[in-house]
């Protein structure tokens, strides 16, 4: 089941002071970005955050699950989606620990 836009908008609206947040449709689901850095996925109307040590320390005992079949485990965020302050802090500390995105190579014409 693909995620619906209403849920995606809800999640992105919950995140404050964590950079410019946007979602991009990817294979029927959504990647979530902060200032161009992907930090999570929304799959089947569930929020998955990339695992980091800082995120694990902040959450305590995270629920981990793969966002889709064959994927590595991510932190599954369900019960704290409406806690704006908690969710925003998790995103801030997660993004801080993630590497910068690799610069995209310009396509050359043949």
UniProtKB/TrEMBL annotation:
Where is the TfoX N-terminal domain positioned along the sequence?
Answer: 14-96
Pfam families from the entry?
TfoX_N
- InterPro entries, per the entry: TfoX_N
SUPFAM superfamilies the record matches: YgaC/TfoX-N like (SSF159894)
Q: Give the protein's recorded name.
A: Competence protein TfoX
Species name: Neptunitalea chrysea
Its gene? tfoX
């Amino acid at each position: 089941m693909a995620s619906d836009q209403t849920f995606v908008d809800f999640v992105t609206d919950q995140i404050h002071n964590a950079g410019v947040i946007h979602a991009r449709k990817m294979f029927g689901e959504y990647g979530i970005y902060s200032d161009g850095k992907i930090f999570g996925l929304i799959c089947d109307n569930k929020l998955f955050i990339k695992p980091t040590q800082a995120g694990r320390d902040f959450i305590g005992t995270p629920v981990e699950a793969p966002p889709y079949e064959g994927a590595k485990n991510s932190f599954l965020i369900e019960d704290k989606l409406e806690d704006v302050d908690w969710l925003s802090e998790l995103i801030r500390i997660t993004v801080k620990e993630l590497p910068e995105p690799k610069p995209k190579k310009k396509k050359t014409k043949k």
